[in-house]
Design a protein that fits this description.
membrane, APC_superfamily, mainly alpha, transmembrane helix, AA/rel_permease1, transmembrane
Length: 432
Amino acid sequence: MRKPSGRHRGTNKTLSFASVILLGINGIIGSGIFLLPGTLYQEAGVGSVSAIVLAGLSTTLIALSYAMLASKIDDDGGAWVYSNRAFGAFVGFQTGWFGWFLGVITIAAELAAFLTALGGLVPAVKQRDVYISVALVIIAALIIINLTGPNILTFIDNISSALKIIILIAVIAAGGYFISTHGLHLNQPRAASTDFRTAFSTAFYMFTGFSFLPVAANKMRNPEKTLPRALMLVMLVVIAIYGLAQITTIVILGTSLTAEALPVAAAFAAIVGPIGKTVVILGMLISILGVAVAVSFDTPIEMASLATEKALLPAVFGRTNKSGAPFVAIWLTLGIAALLVVSGSYLFFVNLIVFSAFLQYITTILAWFKLRHDPTLPTGIHLPMAPFFMGFALLLIGYLITSATWLTWLIAVIVALIGSVIYATDTRRRSE
């Protein structure tokens, strides 16, 4: 999963159709497909493939709302900018506040994924004290990179982007070979959950990186015509990759898939031997670390922009050092991420991310309904039956969000209350 990158904000460069497609695919594919196949299979059995496909198609509807708003509102920032324009400063602040929190959880989730993958090569990392020590070392390195200027970011990003796609293609190819020689056999796990909704909701995590695509694609030539086509193509490609990868792990590993912490690596190893597992894990480590570095760079920028661009946060959160890095936002973001990664599990972070993303999707879709006929804004992209599709997306999100645990709801309420206190205190200070 990737958030909209601050490195791309404000650029006037026209993007080719092919560039947008590659950016979209890279932005969406994250750690989820490498670590979640077993969880999805346990929750829905063979139906996990359907859960992935339906989650991808549903995300496409949500992505279209972002695309339509991006074509009407030129400001960078995504959901919080749209909410601020439609519903005022407080709703805009809360949307941005949860967007920042989403970034913090994503950093924690990617680091948890990294440590899980590393444990496949270095078993000592599975020990709690070693796990925590390695996590804190990585957090410290991310702080240094962000404070001194992320010059290495582009290099890591490019390498990780290529590796994750190469790995998935190799695994799918291995699955194709296995099916051609052994046949297609999809077995149900012995203790599969009957709650398809849980798998459906979990699968959404694998697509939450789409939000950069509408902003980038809007810089294409004739976006009104090409953007919907680009969105559909990107989502179909990613859905195909995810679906085939899920089928591959089910076919190769069978019911043992539920016990695999690194299912993609285990499936590849079953075909090419132990060296295959090592190669896949090394590729996963670089890929996941690349996402973690990128999100650790983008998330403090999002917090700083809330303080500097719209004055929705106290100015202290926007303070920068000599390198231009928002050091207060960096320390706060990565400090909280450190606390999370040493106290929670990957799957717990996934659930929090999906819930926080759903909240942003709701405010964005509602903002589209509010602004679609605003005479002060450009006409933007028009899609046939858009109100019907956006209404359906809202109902779907409402249905899925009810599957969240009480702990997830409690954390969301606490985050909202903390944000409200900060907002009220800063508003009162400004009015004095």
